[in-house]
């Protein structure tokens, strides 16, 4: 937020400089600030490097096939979106966060639950016991290199879900992690 404000100030100074022929050191500084702002803004604004579905369609379609296989899972649309949003938060995927928060809202998820999802352990009263276990599994699968899917979390999942359902949760987390990695590495841009 600060960079656009600084750039707006620098731009207003730059415009006034263009209108006058007299340049003093302060106005030269304003020009340099404006040039710096332009450079910084270009670095911040990401543009998509390439479209994976066009460059590697077979692999992309295989990923889409995984999503299709999960359509018939026991997970509700909201549970699927919670997994997608939480994994995308952990991975820092703006494109997927934008997409899946909008999708969750379409499925009537509350803004409060979406806003507090990254702190769900401190807001347990907002999430069902099932959702808490789903989120715990999704987090551990997303952070697989830390400690894997721990025995404690797996046992909690076994108390509520059968093997097929646990597999659905794991595969939903694996799928969004794949999409996050594609979106982040190719700089998929968030739609305005």
UniProtKB/TrEMBL annotation:
Every Carboxymuconolactone decarboxylase-like domain range: 65-138
One Pfam match: CMD
InterPro entries xref list: AhpD-like (IPR029032), AhpD_core (IPR004675), CMD-like (IPR003779)
GO molecular function, one term: peroxiredoxin activity
UniProt cross-references to SUPFAM superfamilies, sorted A to Z: AhpD-like
Protein name (Swiss-Prot/TrEMBL): Carboxymuconolactone decarboxylase-like domain-containing protein
Annotated source species: Chryseobacterium hagamense
Phylogenetic classification of the source organism: Bacteria, Pseudomonadati, Bacteroidota, Flavobacteriia, Flavobacteriales
